[in-house]
Fold these 3 entries.
Entry 1:
Amino acid sequence: MAGPLTRFFPCLTSAACRLAIVVAAIALPATACAAPVEELADEAAINAFAFADQKVGLAVGEAGLVLSTSDGGLSWQRLTSGTTAPLLGVVMVNRRTAFAAGG
């Protein structure tokens, strides 16, 4: 399964690892709330960050944690990921589309 995502997630080249990976497409909301990331991630560790540009970005972590920012990280909004698995990496395709991987 070689492809562009293996650059970010080398584990995707292993057949055994692929079975344990959960991949989720995340639709980003148009607005964000003004909550510090510490308040939103207090019960789950953050594992990775990705930014589409200087303003729009995501953080992913344990227990399916997904946070989004539209102001360069000054404020964050919790998003529903649809999983409770740990999310280990994230890639942003553009400001509205991202892919997260974990397992």
Entry 2:
Amino acid sequence: METKQLGTVIVDSGKLMIVDPMFLQEWEISPFSMHTEASEEFTHQNIIRGCSEKGFHQNNFDNGNKGLALTVACNDGEYPVMAELEDGIVRKIWVEF
């Protein structure tokens, strides 16, 4: 297996999200308020709430697919995204904070 840096991610909110880009069409940005009832919907509000309360938020889409958002234990900044590749195919990824 080969290990290499694929690129970088910028953390500016203290959170990072892993999701298939196809599901971003369902993304709903709403003002954040801790006074709104929590749900598992894929919204900015629920991701911020979930990450604040438990450190991560499992996004559940209407079609049964999922994504994951998490709070990172680092300062805001730009961080390398590393991968293990086998025959040019990504088998494992990680972010080095």
Entry 3:
Amino acid sequence: MAPGETVRAKFHCDNVEKTDDGSTAQFSAVTSGSKENDSFFEATPFGSLNIGTVRGDHFEQGKNYYLDFSLAEEEGSQEEGQEEDQEEEKEK
């Protein structure tokens, strides 16, 4: 994945469980049910996702959510320095 590029997937919240520390949520990729869902299934990542959150009100069971993936650059990485140099050159 190139810096600045984003891949968007669409997931369905199958279950939310409240815990003493917040909540956990289980998701699965949408695979059908609408033209948009068919399109997402054909073009983006699929699978399942289990996440926890300290706040218990982020997700609602039965709802669909978009999940965006983008490259996480490490602070001070060589690539980051090269990008900054490129931006400076563009500004000249």
